[in-house]
Amino acid sequence: xxxxxxxxxxxxxxxxxxxxxxxxxxxxxxxxxxxxxxxxxxxxxxxxxxxxxxxxxxxxxxxxxxxxxxxxxxxxxxxxxxxxxxxxxxxxxxxxxxxxxxxxxxxxxxxxxxxxxxxxxxxxxxxxxxxxxxxxxxxxxxxxxxxxxxxxxxxxxxxxxxxxxxxxxxxxxxxxxxxxxxxxxxxxxxxxxxxxxxxxxxxxxxxxxxxxxxxxxxxxxxxxxxxx
Length: 228
What we know:
Nucleotide Exchange Factor Grpe, Chain A, domain 2; 3-stranded mixed beta sheet; 3 helices; 72% helix; 13% strand; elongated
């Protein structure tokens, strides 16, 4: 009995040892499997992270290139806008300069027209001076003549300083400066001015009054040639 009991006990212990060994082996296998699985998972995670990092790098490079392209396009747009504004500014400056010149010319013309009207009204006074000088010169009043000549001279000098110009009545008749009142037969060539009846005047190239003149017909010379 005792022997059987010992054997049974030994068998039980043996079986327990076997079971424990199997459990330990199972646990080791499971641990190894878990370790392998963890390694695989870590490798997959690392691979995924590397792929994601590579994708992020590619995206960053693409974004950087896109930003560079946008920057270059922006610079080109800025240059075009700058050139356009510069041209517009230069045109505005030129237009303003032309406007300023036109305004100055218009003001000068307006002043000249106003002065021309004033000088035109003074021509009758000049004519009266001329008649007075002619009348006084035929008298015996020498002092009076000198006084009138001095007054007339000073008056004409001041008018000429302000732009008055007497039209010359010499040589050949000029339709732009003279008007013919009388024509006479003369040995002078045709249209030669023989005498001035009334002086003509201009003011800063504005015609105030043409000179009234007598011109030659040229007939006297022709008759003389025929008689010969």
